[in-house]
From TrEMBL:
<dbReference type="InterPro" id="IPR058660">
    <property type="entry name" value="WHD_DnaB"/>
</dbReference>
<dbReference type="InterPro" id="IPR006343">
    <property type="entry name" value="DnaB/C_C"/>
</dbReference>
<comment type="similarity">
    <text>Belongs to the DnaB/DnaD family.</text>
</comment>
<dbReference type="Pfam" id="PF07261">
    <property type="entry name" value="DnaB_2"/>
</dbReference>
<feature type="compositionally biased region" description="Basic and acidic residues">
    <location>
        <begin position="427"/>
        <end position="444"/>
    </location>
</feature>
<feature type="domain" description="DnaB/C C-terminal">
    <location>
        <begin position="339"/>
        <end position="396"/>
    </location>
</feature>
<feature type="region of interest" description="Disordered">
    <location>
        <begin position="408"/>
        <end position="482"/>
    </location>
</feature>
<feature type="compositionally biased region" description="Basic and acidic residues">
    <location>
        <begin position="452"/>
        <end position="467"/>
    </location>
</feature>
<protein>
    <submittedName>
        <fullName>DnaD domain protein</fullName>
    </submittedName>
</protein>
<dbReference type="Pfam" id="PF25888">
    <property type="entry name" value="WHD_DnaB"/>
</dbReference>
<feature type="domain" description="Replicative helicase loading/DNA remodeling protein DnaB N-terminal winged helix">
    <location>
        <begin position="10"/>
        <end position="223"/>
    </location>
</feature>
Length: 482
């Protein structure tokens, strides 16, 4: 599916704008703090856009995305994905003007957060800790720490402005100079003075958090509308996102962090959220993952699945990789090593969530429910190079790879062996999903339809699929009830 043509074309124009220039400190923050989260390619794109602005020039010349593709040596789909990372983390604002045969994009570059703002951010600091680990995180943070000023024994003797400078009286300013002064102080309304903008926090779409449910639960003992100010809601959204807290559980944490009926201790709420996460998920910090398969890549969006294969496609498209692994374990906690594998597939190999589901599921079923990282990395690299974007493409490729592997194993088994050497046993039969065996089944459907209808392996596979679907439904209903 050529999905990227709907979003961006090589002929689309672009212009770059900045409100300020990057400082040496900004570049250090980008490399040490942002790059571990967004990756080297997104960082390179950010610096490439900045390089289009000459010193003391805050608008670039108009160019095309084709030129940017050549400069970055990136295909358009990847360029678009890396751009979205910069937007999501607050380093880029994008504006679009539509014309008849092309669009013009304005990319407004945003400076990174200050170290103080970054390390006190509820979201970024937690994810950086998880990416770097405790020791490296502290080493990096130490580079941005300075000793506090010990004022004991010192007395401030700094002179004030009015102690040094004086103002001219009206009689000392000529009349014509007053007019010149007024004109000189005026700024063209179509322009603005270069400024270092305020700290840009991460932008969250709060549609995923049910504030109405939270308010109704809080209303039983406090003035919820007065309590949930705009700033408090921003904190709640960030904490709910990072620690995966549902509205009713958030209500209980808020109740524990109240100072008075209508006053919330934000630091206490953060502490309560962290303690709740440790109880629920252990001491490991939460990982940064992606959601379910993007709508523009879904085959079954708005369709009702008819065949078993379509049901599997719909399942892979609407389930996150972590939820799929959890359902494979009958709801048990996913081991941290497996979480790391999923995170690597999503972030390092840039695979879509639905594609990751197909890869993980096919390996689990063929490998006795074990995830072997070396094998996963080998397949992930192949799929990433082939730019697999849809679940259907991934299933076709998994099916083809299985057929090749089966043919190879059979040829080895049927090859003549040396005299006196015992013949190897036949290839082990694997419990595989029907979509992985689609081609073989189509070839032999007429001859084996009656047999397959009573085949215990087919029945077992159907039972496994239905059980997995039921487990997912139960997990979702439990989350809604909580």
């Amino acid at each position: 599916m050529e999905w990227h043509w709907k979003e961006l074309l090589p002929v689309d124009r672009l212009m770059i704008r900045a409100k300020d220039q990057l400082t040496v400190q900004d570049q250090r923050v980008l490399i040490l703090l942002y790059q571990p989260l967004i990756g080297a390619v997104a960082y390179s794109l950010y610096m490439t856009l900045w390089s289009e602005l000459e010193d003391d020039i805050y608008w670039s010349e108009e160019t095309t995305h084709r030129q940017l593709m050549i400069s970055m040596d990136l295909p358009l789909p990847q360029l678009f994905q890396e751009r979205k990372k910069l937007e999501a983390i607050g380093l880029l604002k994008t504006y679009k003007k539509k014309k008849d045969d092309y669009s013009t994009y304005l990319y407004e570059l945003q400076p990174p957060m200050s170290p103080q703002a970054f390390f006190t951010n509820d979201v970024l600091s937690v994810y950086l800790y998880n990416r770097l680990g405790k020791t490296k995180y502290r080493q990096i943070r130490e580079r941005f720490l300075i000793d506090k000023l010990d004022e004991e024994g010192y007395e401030e003797v700094t002179y004030a402005f009015d102690e040094v400078f004086t103002s001219l009286s009206h009689s000392e300013i000529a009349t014509h100079h007053q007019t010149e002064l007024i004109e000189a102080l005026e700024i063209d309304p179509n322009k603005e003075v270069v400024q270092r903008g305020q700290e840009q926090d991460l932008l969250f779409a709060d549609r995923s958090f049910d504030f109405q449910l939270l308010e109704s639960d809080l209303a039983t003992f406090s003035n919820a509308k007065k309590l949930l100010t705009v700033e408090i809601k921003k904190v709640i959204i960030r904490l709910a996102f990072v620690y995966r807290i549902e509205p009713l559980e958030m209500s209980r944490l808020i109740q524990q962090a109240l100072l008075h009926d209508d006053e919330l201790n934000v630091e206490e709420l953060r502490k309560r959220a962290q303690e709740w996460y440790k109880i629920e998920y252990g001491n490991e910090p939460p990982t940064l993952g992606l959601k379910t398969h993007p709508l523009e890549h879904r085959e079954m969006s708005g369709k009702v699945p008819q065949t078993e294969e379509e049901k599997m496609i719909s399942l892979y498209e609407t389930t996150s990789p972590l939820d799929l692994l959890e359902s494979r374990s009958d709801g048990a906690k996913v081991p941290l090593a497996d979480v790391k594998i999923i995170e690597s597939l999503l972030l390092d190999y840039q695979l879509m969530p639905g594609v990751v589901n197909v890869l993980i599921d096919s390996i689990l079923i063929r490998n006795d429910m074990k995830l072997t990282k070396a094998l996963i990395d080998k397949i992930a690299g192949h799929w990433s190079r082939k730019n697999i974007k849809t679940v259907k493409e991934a299933m076709e490729l998994a099916r083809l790879e299985y057929q090749k592997n089966t043919a190879y194993q059979q040829s080895k088994n049927e090859a003549p062996v040396a005299k006196g050497r015992p013949k190897k046993s036949s290839v082990r039969k694997e419990k595989l999903p029907k979509w992985l065996l689609k081609e073989q089944e189509e070839k032999s459907a007429a001859a084996t339809s009656d047999h397959n209808s009573q085949d215990p392996k087919v029945a077992q596979e159907k039972e496994r699929f239905n059980k997995m679907m039921e487990q997912l439904k139960q997990n979702r209903s439990l989350k809604e009830e909580d």
